[in-house]
Design a protein that fits this description.
Oligomer: single chain
Largest sheet: none
Structural class: mainly alpha
Number of helices: 13
Length: 295
């Protein structure tokens, strides 16, 4: 199997495991405080990040050196907070609807890249952003009723992750991907451990199995995604990530008894199409600036 095919295998495996992870998070988040669930999950993630960094060229002594410490700290604190918001959203809003709104993250990244990264957005991407936002509005009124304040949870989660992506792009100009991964795990584990113990809850014996599986899926999925990005361009991986919305919808309906509405399906289709076009267009513009053919 060639490198590109292996990349797609790793990407699909990561997305399937991420979907399983979301279902477990929803199950545990409905029983235990989301902060507590996220903290245990992050401890395993931090251990995995340290393990990978120690095996990288130069080991921890090299991987722990950053040229953007403040930005790395911001990233590390932001992601666990976002995970807490998302687990809460899965529980209150629902798995399928939350993922439908989270699918708009590339749209928010494109919007934030203008003031935060100084990027210029042409009419094509503006059109995609507009279509994506219309899709979000459709999703937010799944039954045509008044706006539900609970929808602010997945919206906040999407915006938080968009800021995390922007911060990651900024640090990537100075630090390696492994250094950023190391700080994501270690700083995140430390920051959430300052709050999580106040929400400590004794797990039922059976739920320790679910928690262990959550920790394993969190580490394995990130590893597979790292391998996928090593072998494929982001523009090839991004469309596949929208399969997570499909898997979330299937799990939401079949396992958790959620309902899909016409507005939600139509809005999700618009968001996904707009997101794929936005990522593709960003790549075209980047290659043009680098003097490369668009492909």
């Amino acid at each position: 199997m060639n490198t590109k095919a292996n990349g797609y295998v790793f990407a699909l495996a990561a997305i399937v495991i991420f979907s399983i992870q979301d279902g477990i998070s929803k199950h545990l988040g409905a029983i235990y405080p989301p902060v507590f669930v996220a903290m245990i999950r992050y401890w395993a993630f931090a251990a995995f990040a340290v393990f990978l960094a120690s095996r990288a060229p130069g080991g921890l002594a090299v991987m722990a050196v950053t040229k953007r410490p403040a930005l790395q700290m911001l990233r590390g604190m932001l992601l666990p907070a976002q995970i807490v918001v998302i687990i809460t959203s899965f529980t209150i809003v629902g798995l399928a609807l939350s993922q439908a709104i989270l699918a708009a993250t590339p749209i928010f990244v494109a919007l934030l890249s203008m003031p935060l990264l100084g990027e210029r957005v042409g009419w094509r991407r503006w059109t995609a952003i507009g279509a994506g936002l219309v899709g979000v509005l459709l999703i937010l009124k799944p039954g045509g009723n008044a706006f539900d304040m609970a929808f602010l949870l997945p919206l906040t989660g999407a915006l938080m992750f968009a800021i995390y992506v922007i911060a990651t792009r900024l640090v990537s100009r100075a630090d390696s991907a492994m250094t950023s991964f190391f700080y994501t795990g270690v700083v995140g584990a430390v920051s959430i451990s300052l709050v999580g113990p106040f929400f400590w809850t004794n797990l039922a014996p059976f739920d320790w199995g679910w928690m262990l599986l959550l920790c394993i899926t969190g580490s394995v999925s990130h590893y597979f995604l790292i391998r996928a990005y090593d072998m494929l361009d982001a523009v090839a991986v991004q469309p596949l990530t929208y399969l997570q919305l499909v898997f979330a919808s299937i799990m939401g309906v079949t396992i958790f008894g959620e309902t899909l509405t016409t507005n939600m399906i139509a809005g999700s289709a618009m968001v996904v199409a707009a997101g794929i076009f936005t990522v593709w267009r960003e790549r075209v513009v980047a290659r043009r600036k680098a003097g490369l053919p668009p492909q």
